[in-house]
Amino acid sequence: MRILVFGSNGLVGSNVKNVLLETSYECLFSSRKDTDLFDLNSTLETIKKFQPNIIINCAARVGGINANDKNRTIFLLENLKINMNIFESIMGLDPIKVINLGSSCIYPLDALNPISESSIMSGKLEPTNSAYAMAKLTAIELGNSIKKEFGHNVINLMPTNLYGKYDNFSKEDSHVIPGLIYRMHDAKINSQKKFSVWGTGTPLREFLNAMDFAKSILFIIENNINDDLLNIGSNEEVSIKELASIIKKTINYEGEIIFDEEMPDGNPRKLLDSTKIFDYGWKPEIKLEQGLKEAYEWFKSN
Ligand code: GFB
């Protein structure tokens, strides 16, 4: 079995690489410096040369609530280009299994929680990340079309909010966990008395460690699971306020946590219904407290 991983240097790609390196599959890990996924010829060349049976596409322009809202055009364009080039490249090739990654933000703002796969396209998107979500929805539609017309097997995985080692830690642009870790670590070092969490603290989020997600991808390959659309969550839900206090404990920050209500909350609740993947027999292993400790250690040494 020959597995090609695009985006092998990011949060998901790095964890997928570590998981696959423990197997005997023949793998090619392709990062930004190996393949220009914004260029059709470069994408096609990598695929034709390696001739994979499976492509795992972990490449994406991602970011947190602020980055998504601020860079709408680039998030939409870059994610569209990556997915268009991969799918257009394989159109004329022998059947390939493509594991394509999306996000829980593809589901409508008013979808019933826990959000099942059948909620897709049943309503309007959450406005802070609608551009990114639209690119991911287009990728799903493209994948389904390629499957129907060209015989490739496309599996779209929708992970819940991911975090962990190899995350992108940025004060302004990352997701909540790396953002809070970075900013709170700074507050601790500078003996800041108060720490400001964005929004009201009331939104609920479900978090999954990216290593668990990587293992779910291997589980899907090894058990030959071929659903068009599959949610991958942890069923572990916390409020942003609770998350901030767990991170405070992890970092050992002693100041007071306050809330900046000028900053957006985004979606009030985003809990995935992961019944399908749980019923297949996959379960996450890393509890949030443990995963946060590991992420903090990784952040400090990197
Ligand atoms: O993780 P996050 O940026 O994105 O924010 P979403 C989650 C929640 O944490 C929001 C709050 O309610 C934020 O207001 N928050 C509090 C913070 N403090 C911070 C902070 O320092 N940094 C950040 N980033 N948030 C993302 C989408 O939505 O979900 C992505 O933007 C993707 O596109 C991902 O789909 C799964 O969970 O709101």
Structure, described:
By secondary structure, the protein is an alpha/beta fold. Helix content is 42%, strand content 18%. It contains 10 helices and 12 strands. It has helices spanning 11-20, 40-50, 65-70, 72-90, 130-150, 176-189, 210-222, 240-251, 275-280, 288-301; strands at residues 2-6, 26-30, 54-57, 97-101, 153-159, 161-163, 194-198, 204-209, 229-232, 237-239, 256-260, 269-270. The strands form 3 sheets. It has a 6-stranded parallel sheet with strand order 2-1-3-4-5-9, sandwiched between helices. Helix 1 links the parallel strand 1 (2-6) and strand 2. The longest helix is centred in the middle third of the chain and has 21 residues, at 130-150. It starts with a strand and ends with a helix. Bound molecules: guanosine-5'-diphosphate-beta-L-fucopyranose. Guanosine-5'-diphosphate-beta-L-fucopyranose binds next to helix 3, helix 6 and strand 7.
